Amino acid sequence: MRILLSDHFNYKKLLRFTLPSMITLVFTSIYGVVDGFFVSNYVGKTPFTAVNFIMPFLMMLGCVGFMFGTGGGALIAMTLGQGKEEKARSLFSLIVYVSGILGIVLAVLGLILLRPLATLLGAEGQLLEDSLTYGRIILLAIPAYILQYEFQCLFATAEKSTLGLYVTIAAGCTNIVLDALFVAVLRWGLPGAAAATALSQLVGGVIPLIYFARPNNSLLRLGRTRFGGRALVKVCTNGSSELLNNISMSLVNMLYNLQLLKYIGEDGVAAYGVLMYVSLVFQAVFIGYSVGTAPIIGYHYGAQNALELKGLLKKSMVLLGAFAAAMFGASYLLARPLSYVFTGYDEGLLTLTVRAFSLFAFSFLFSGYVIFGSSFFTALNNGLVSAVISFLRTMVFQVSAVLIFPLIWKVDGIWLSMVAAEVLALGVTVIFLRVEKKRYGY
Question: Are 401 and 418 in contact (CB under 8 A)?
């Protein structure tokens, strides 16, 4: 039975509605890890380090789509809740068209800035050349990458989360099959891994575009629209927290790489790359749940249904607690097997990665609440509070911790810095939830 945004949500229905979004984000993260696996095992340590080194910059560009998807999805859901379906479709079309054009502009700028940025961050020699090889190929697909991120959010708003999952599976299978073909069979090396990822992003971005451009039975469809500067400002402001969070995370990752190059060398960057791969998969559960619940929250906020908002928040806290415990337990149980997949060829690197896991794992106990808290305020169309949470979490707490902790605990301090940042960000999130409670009635 189809679940509607206007429904009353118990635990079962909430999980059924959000599960496709969670699986979608997890699957997206898993197939993103595939490049790392094939490059690490079939091409070598330096190319693997190069992928991890340049990836934050590429993700920073792609996550513009997350801004349009979350910010636009919240505004569209609220508009639907107000009963203005035609206006919602017009907003949807405007958001997709503008983000597509912006993707082309960012791809061109990325190609121009790639070498000076990689050099500025400390890449040289073979590491620099491998970073440029991988980055230039991925940048060609950045417009589709942006649309892929965007549609992952907007499928839930259109009440088509399951279709979004199928598209992601198609893109993921494309990446996995082509990685195996290009890297393991044809031995195309790093360019082959990059080409596989770029082609999978085209699948993830273009298929939804075709679906929404044709007649369909969802709440949304691409069509004629009018330029609305105020609406775009609202979308960008509201989604700025998600963009800020992803840009900040990319900048923080670059800072981590710099610290690790300083304290350990290339092995540190490789170990951190493994952590980020696994973290992306685990965090995708929290992000997917937040993406799945956002249109529900936005709809009931637009319909002024405070009782349903209160129930959604309470149930989400319980579910996030269960997810956090599961992620923490899994990270401990799977630390060595997952590390071995990427670094089993180097005993020293394997030992370093497993040690990093044992400390980094504690961050999963807190991060889910922070991710949801930021998304919750985005869904309420309060981009300012959401942005403050994201900014403090990354650019203040994580940056401060990764600069200070290594002075006290050396390399262990780098892994522990993420845990400390999540604890502090959780405290800020709780404060905002309490302060804004009376205003929204949850």
Answer: yes
| Both structure tokens of 67 | 């801004």
Domain residue extents for the chain: 11-440
CB neighbours (10 Å) of residue 304? 11
Digitized pLDDT (tens) for each residue of the chain, 442 residues in all: 678 788 889 999 999 989 988 888 887 777 667 777 888 888 887 888 788 788 878 887 888 888 898 888 888 988 998 889 999 999 999 999 999 999 999 999 999 999 998 888 777 888 899 999 999 999 999 999 999 989 988 998 898 888 888 998 899 889 989 999 999 899 998 999 999 999 999 999 999 999 999 988 888 899 888 888 888 888 888 777 777 777 777 777 778 878 888 888 777 777 887 787 778 788 889 988 998 899 999 899 988 899 999 999 999 999 999 999 998 998 888 888 878 877 777 787 888 888 888 888 899 999 999 999 999 998 898 888 988 998 899 889 998 998 999 999 888 898 899 899 999 999 999 999 999 998 888 8
Q: Which residues are CB-contacts of 277 (< 8 A; sequence separation ≥ 6)?
A: 29, 32, 33, 36, 342
Rounded Cα gap, residues 409 and 419, in angstroms: 14
* Sign, Cα dihedral of 30, 135, 417, 247: negative
pTM for this prediction: 0.76
